[in-house]
Amino acid sequence: MIIIGFESSCDETGVALVCTERGLLAHALHSQIAMHREYGGVVPELASRDHIRRILPLTRAVLNQAGLPMERIDAVAYTAGPGLAGALLVGASVAQAFAWARGLPAIPIHHLEGHLLSPLLATPRPEFPFVALLVSGGHTQIMRVGGVGDYELLGETLDDAAGEAFDKSAKLLGLGYPGGPALSKLAQEGDAGRYELPRPMLHSRDLDFSFSGLKTAVLTRLRAIEKESGALDDAQRADLAAATESAIVDVLAAKAIKAVKQTGLKRLVVAGGVGANRHLRKQLIEAAARLKCEVFFPPLDLCTDNGAMIAFAAAMRVNAGLAALDSAGHAFTVRP
Ligand code: KG4
Ligand code: ZN
User: Fold this and answer.
1) Residue pLDDT, tens place only, 285-306
2) Annotated binding residues for substrate, as ranges?
């Protein structure tokens, strides 16, 4: 069965084709980063309009890539949420129109389930059950994943998400949008030990996080440096970026490892945009190795939002015989 998937929850338009037996066939992505950059963040109205412009050409592109006619598609998947309402509506409308016109099932997919299952698109592919660290711009969660549709929340952020902490700190440092990759790049040249920053909730007994205080700590430190020596020079900026990255990564890694110990599972899966962070990857691999725990990441280009993870999550749900809800709220199951 061939499923086409649409992702349009934020600032990436993604379309992909996944076969329930053969996996990913084709995917195409358009990032709106350049468009939003001059505003320092995502402008929802512009995002929706750009999704409208891009989604059909991307659909044509994936069909061409896979060398398949439209008639070969058996089901349509789309990101139902969470995300920007207007942006989500574009993907949902196109997907439902497509399904309606061709008499196909339309499968709504939770954006986070897409991220959560995306490491299974890589080889080697993790077996269930595993601990998942889901770190995106809007969410920071630790989950026990028993199988497709079997997700137990073990801990989450009480305020800002890890990606938000990266983005907001990057903004304070005068780095452009999106802040996470920019801050991480600058941090490579910096000394993480020069400025001390807090590791919020590092030693709390639970698996929860809190990042809003860290952003304030970065601001306080920034003001203190400015007061002492005027505007930050390049080295100071890089050192503060490194300190920030290190603080965020330390907490994420510590809690993920704590979850591995608590559950006794030997597989840790990292998903979501912040999963692209090299420092986090390295730290997790090293810490997990000491516990003989394997760590899995999505392919680097599928860490941030994309259509492949949405089509793939739908394929996994179909293969598992799981029901989806139709637009009237009635459950239906798609059979391969
Ligand atoms: O999963 P994603 O594409 O979108 C959401 O669903 O939120 O994640 C985007 C987030 C942003 O906050 C971005 O700054 C962060 O992931 N991010 C990174 C890196 N690449 C993306 N943060 C740190 N280091 C990176 N290399
Ligand atoms: Zn996302």
Assistant:
1) 999 999 999 999 988 889 999 9
2) 134-138, 167, 180, 277
∠ CA 35-37-41 to the nearest 5 degrees? Answer: 105
Q: Where are the domains of the chain?
A: 2-116+303-333, 128-297
The CATH classification number of 2-116+303-333 equals: 3.30.420.40
- Kindly tell me if the per-residue pLDDT of 315 is higher than 90: yes
Q: Does residue 298 have its Cβ closer than 6 Å to ligand 1?
A: no
Q: What is the pLDDT of residues 79-124, one digit of tens each?
A: 999 999 999 999 999 999 999 999 999 999 999 999 999 999 999 9
- Give 91-126 as a DSSP string: HHHHHHHHHHHHT--EEEEEHHHHHHHGGGGSSSPP
Alpha helices in 188-277 (DSSP H): 212-229, 234-263
Q: Of 11, 133, 136, 175, which is best to mutate to test ligand 1, by the most ligand atoms within 8 angstroms of its C-beta?
A: 136
Report domain 128-297's class: alpha beta
ipTM, 2 decimals?
0.98
